Amino acid sequence: MACPEFEDLILDYCEAAASSADRALLESHVAVCQACRDCLAQQQELDQRLAKSLAAPSLSPAFAPGLAARIAAERRAPQFLWLPRILDGIGYLGVATAAGYLLQQLPHAAVGVTVIAACAAFGLWETGKALRATYGHRP
Ligand SMILES: [Zn+2]
Question: Of 38, 53, 68, which marks where a domain is finished?
Answer without folding.
Answer: 53
